[in-house]
């Protein structure tokens, strides 16, 4: 098979927690089907906060040299990207959000195309985990990755996640395999169109500053 590498980005500080178990279940389906799989434990990485300086949008890449260099490379080399996070205060963990913020260049210049992905969210029963999974999939889409679905888990203590939720995680793995086989390409929906329109307006209005972004879209023939 052409698709060979799948990477899971884990936002939980618990290495053997519920999100980790769910992520392993998804990745196991892929490794059973010939993928090389890897998990990036964000909590064990040195990742500085985004400083909002805009260097990545103006010059092309972040000036900070930390573990994000290696993580970006791993993602670029992967064909499948899974984002997994427990719900913390109704949203993703700080580790996951810090990582997402540092991926800003991909959000403005979606170059992670030709890849499939999905998201995993675990919670303890308070809030709307589907909204969080939907958010993570929207992030993947912003980077150019096609999300095929999500899996939700329930648990409080580490590793408590139930069999039925692990099955859902396995199902996400199978959906990814099917998407690859069928060459799944969803239509851009209204929300996606609106976000793209807003992003292009921002880049166009600030093109004298957001030079790397502007050149990217100009080269594509999208901006003049
Ligand atoms: C700081 C913090 C905030 C949390 N906020 C929520 C929450 O808003 N809703 C919820 O259902 N569970 C919440 N939880 C519980 C975790 O989502 C739950 O324990 C989950 O199973 C942890 O997954 P993990 O084992 O992958 O770390 C929170 C836990 C912590 C430590």
Compile the SSE list and pairings:
Elements: E1 5-10, H1 18-31, E2 36-41, H2 55-58, H3 68-76, E3 80-86, H4 94-101, H5 104-108, E4 116-123, H6 129-143, E5 146-154, H7 163-182, H8 190-205, H9 211-219
Parallel strand pairs: 1-2, 1-3, 3-4, 4-5
Helix pairs in contact: 1-7
Bound molecules: flavin mononucleotide (FMN).
Residues 12, 14, 17-20, 86-90, 122-127, 155-156, 158 line the site of flavin mononucleotide (FMN).
Describe this entry's structure for a reader.
- With 224 residues, this protein is an alpha/beta fold.
- Helices cover 45% and strands 16% of the residues.
- The protein contains nine helices and five strands; from the N terminus they run βαβααβααβαβααα.
- The protein has a five-stranded parallel sheet with strand order 2-1-3-4-5, sandwiched between helices.
- 42% of the residues are buried.
- The protein binds flavin mononucleotide.
- Flavin mononucleotide is lined by residues 12, 14, 17-20, 86-90, 122-127, 155-156, 158.
- The site of flavin mononucleotide has 20 residues, from helix 1 and strand 4.
What's the short story on this structure?
This protein is of the alpha/beta class. The chain contains nine helices and five strands; from the N terminus they run βαβααβααβαβααα.
Parts with pLDDT < 50 across at least 5 consecutive residues: none
Sketch the topology as an H/E string, one letter per element: EHEHHEHHEHEHHH
Domain tally: 2
Biggest sheet record: 5 strands, parallel
Fold-level CATH name of the largest domain: Rossmann fold
CATH homologous group name of the largest domain: Flavodoxin domain
Number of helical elements = 9
End-to-end Cα distance = 39 Å
Strand content: 15-25%
CATH level-two architecture of the largest domain: 3-Layer(aba) Sandwich
| Strand order across the largest sheet | 2-1-3-4-5
Bound molecules: flavin mononucleotide
């Amino acid at each position: 098979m052409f698709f060979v590498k799948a990477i899971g980005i884990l936002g939980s500080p618990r290495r053997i927690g519920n999100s980790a178990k769910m992520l392993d279940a998804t990745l196991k389906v892929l490794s059973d089907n010939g993928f090389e799989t890897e998990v990036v434990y964000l909590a064990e990485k040195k990742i500085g906060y985004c400083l909002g300086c805009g260097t990545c949008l103006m010059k092309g890449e972040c000036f900070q040299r930390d573990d994000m260099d290696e993580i970006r490379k791993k993602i670029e080399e992967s064909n499948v990207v899974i984002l997994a996070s427990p719900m913390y205060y109704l949203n993703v963990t700080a580790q996951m959000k810090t990582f997402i913020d540092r991926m800003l260049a991909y959000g403005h210049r979606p170059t992670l195309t030709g890849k499939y992905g999905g998201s995993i969210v675990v919670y303890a029963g308070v809030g709307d985990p589907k909204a969080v999974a939907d958010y993570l999939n929207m992030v993947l889409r912003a980077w150019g990755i096609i999300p095929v679905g999500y899996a939700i888990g329930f648990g409080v203590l580490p590793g408590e996640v139930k069999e039925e939720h692990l099955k859902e995680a396995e199902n996400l793995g199978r959906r990814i395999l099917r998407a690859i086989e069928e060459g799944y390409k969803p239509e851009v929906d209204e929300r996606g169109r609106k976000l793209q329109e807003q992003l292009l307006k921002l880049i166009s209005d600030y093109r004298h500053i957001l030079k790397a972004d502007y050149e990217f879209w100009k080269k594509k023939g999208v901006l003049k």
